[in-house]
Amino acid sequence: MSGTQSIIKELKKQLKLHDVHYQDIATKLDLSEGSVKRLLADGNNISLARLSAICELISMDICELVKLAANAEKNLQSLTFEQEQQIVSDKALLMVSVCVLNGFQFNEIIERYNINKQLLMQKLIELDRLGVLELMPDNRIRLLLSPNFDWIAGGPIQTFFLTQVLPEFFSSHFSRQDEKLLMSTGLMSPHTNQKFQLRLQKLVEEFYSACNGDNELDMSDRNGTSLVIALRRWHFDMFDNIDYINAK
Question: How much is the pTM?
Answer without folding.
Answer: 0.67
